[in-house]
Write a structure and sequence with these properties.
Elements: H1 5-8, E1 17-21, H2 27-40, H3 52-63, E2 68-73, E3 76-85, E4 95-102, H4 111-123, E5 130-137, H5 140-148, E6 152-163, E7 166-176
Parallel strand pairs: 4-5
Antiparallel strand pairs: 1-2, 2-3, 3-4, 5-7, 6-7
Helix pairs in contact: 2-3
Length: 177
C-alpha cells in the first residue's frame, strides 16, 4: 500500500491515524519497515535483516525502560520511534538516543513530526537532559525532520561505515530538553 494524505483522513475529515505504545505484536510490521532499510539502503548499519523474534526481544528490552511508540493508519503500523540509552556508563544516564523509521512508501508529510512530538511528550520530566540522533549521511529527509524538531548538528564523522559497497558518513544531532 502506498500511504498518502488521502489514507490519513476519512471522508468528512475524521482522522484515521493513531499513535500508541508498541506491543510485541507490532514486531512483524516493524520488521517490514526496518528490514527494507537494511536491505535497500545504507541508512541502517545493520547488514542482516532482523527476525520477528529478534525484534520482539528488542521491543521487550527497550520499551521496558523508555517510550517506544508506533503510528497507525487504519490499524496498520506505518512508522515507529523510540529512545534508548545513548551510552551505558552511569554519567550518560541523562542522555538518550532517539530513533525513528517510517514505511519507505509513506509520502505524507507530518507523520514523523507527530510521532516524535508524542515521543518527546512521553519523556516528560523524567530527568532526561539530552537526546542524540545518529544519522547516516546523506539523508536529507531525516536531517530535515530532526532539525525541524529542534536538533542541532554537533558532529560529522567521515567514512565510518561501509555498506552497499560504499563508505558512509555519520552525523550526530543533539536536542537539549
Amino acid at each position: 500500500m502506498v500511504f498518502t494524505k488521502s489514507n490519513l483522513v476519512k471522508t468528512g475529515g475524521v482522522p484515521l491515524n493513531k499513535i500508541r505504545s508498541v506491543t510485541k505484536n507490532d514486531a512483524v510490521s516493524i520488521c517490514s519497515i526496518y528490514n527494507y532499510y537494511i536491505e535497500y539502503s545504507a541508512i541502517s548499519f545493520e547488514e542482516e535483516t532482523v527476525s520477528v523474534n529478534g525484534m520482539q526481544q528488542r521491543i521487550t528490552e527497550y520499551s521496558s525502560k523508555h517510550p517506544w511508540l508506533v503510528y497507525e493508519i487504519d490499524g496498520e503500523v506505518v512508522a515507529y520511534a523510540y529512545v534508548t540509552l545513548w551510552k551505558s556508563r552511569s554519567a550518560y544516564r541523562f542522555t538518550l538516543e532517539s530513533t525513528i523509521y517510517a514505511a519507505h512508501d509513506l509520502k505524507e508529510k507530518g507523520v514523523g513530526t507527530q510521532l516524535y512530538q508524542a515521543l518527546f511528550n512521553r519523556l516528560g520530566n523524567n530527568e532526561i537532559h539530552s537526546l542524540m540522533a545518529v544519522i547516516a549521511l546523506p539523508n536529507q529527509v531525516s536531517v530535515g525532520l530532526h532539525e525541524k524538531m529542534g536538533f542541532k548538528k554537533v558532529a560529522h564523522f567521515h567514512e565510518v561505515g561501509f555498506k552497499k559497497s560504499q563508505w558512509v558518513d555519520v552525523g550526530y544531532w543533539q536536542k537539549l530538553l
